[in-house]
Amino acid sequence: MKSSDVVIGWVKDGQVYFADRHADGHFLPAKDSSQDWTMLMGQETGQYTVFKMVRQLDTCDNQDVAIKPGTTRVIWAYGYTDPLSEDAVSYHRMTRGTKSILLLDPPTSEQHGDALPSDVKVLEFTNRNLSVPADDTTYHCTMWRLPDLGGKTHMIRYEPIIQPGHQGLIHHMVLYYCANPTTEDDFPTDSFRCYKNPPQHLYSCYNVLVAWAIGGRVFNFPNHVGYPIGGPGDPGFFMLETHYDNPRMRSAFIFVHKPLTSLCSLPRIIYKLPDQYTGYDVFEITNNLDWTDPKVHQDFQQTIADSEYAQTCGGIGKMFQV
């Protein structure tokens, strides 16, 4: 809670009470010197209280947190009774939680998946009949061997598939490739915890091919480029890391694998057949020691295309409904 940007509001006898606040510790958040949220609507109907409000993405207020592209970790809490005053908001106790959401619209290439041409095939990397442990967080890894694709092919899209009802359980997925040759004898057939004594011979298998995090959608490569896979010298072994976020530590989550129609958590890769592709190869640039933000770069070009929101302090407004 400390360092959080907070809004507290309620409706009592038809009157809306609302304030922009900030948390300096584990106590009642103080009111901001500058009230940067504008209330558009507040109402209470039965058991539900609804607010609609608007604020600049970056208010240039050091008591606010700028709203940026990418996944945002949101905290929430509520009480069962109205506060006696703005300075007497009672502790919420266990009626609280967290959620990772995408506050801003995703880049255009991630908003939807266009209809696929007829000359493509699909690879799905699935978690097999997995019962998620009743732990707060779990990093689950499975290994995959690339099937024979008939020669060099090109990935043109990747997308997640999340089993209905489990959307809040998946925090992120990363499909890594093994940089060093891996033999059949070294290939693990059982899944394992990614960071709890993983097989040492898999330490070369932490090279990112594709990644997805909560809030992400479909990623389409530009029409004239594709990521090469299946050719001579291309990786043949992959590792799928799935991060399950289970703060309530429920034990009823089970992912069931059904070939071709699976609804398990996975990345799905769409690729062109070897003799159908006429565009450019792309490659990945990894900055620093830790993988943070992949950049796709077209051969023979001097610039890198990236999706950004052009924003300055107080420059762009975004409306959120709570």
UniProtKB/TrEMBL annotation:
Alphabetical UniProt keywords: Copper, Metal-binding, Monooxygenase, Oxidoreductase
CDD domains: DOMON_DOH (cd09631)
Lineage: Eukaryota, Metazoa, Spiralia, Lophotrochozoa, Mollusca
Organism: Elysia marginata
GO CC annotation: extracellular space; secretory granule membrane
Oxidoreductase in keyword set: yes
Cofactor(s) demanded: Cu(2+)
Domain DOMON: 1-79
PROSITE patterns cross-referenced by the UniProt entry: DOMON (PS50836)
Molecular function GO labels: copper ion binding; dopamine beta-monooxygenase activity
Family matches, as PANTHER family: DOPAMINE BETA HYDROXYLASE RELATED (PTHR10157), MOXD1 HOMOLOG 1 (PTHR10157:SF23)
Name of protein: DBH-like monooxygenase protein 1
Pfam assignment, any one: DOMON
Family assignment from sequence similarity: Belongs to the copper type II ascorbate-dependent monooxygenase family.
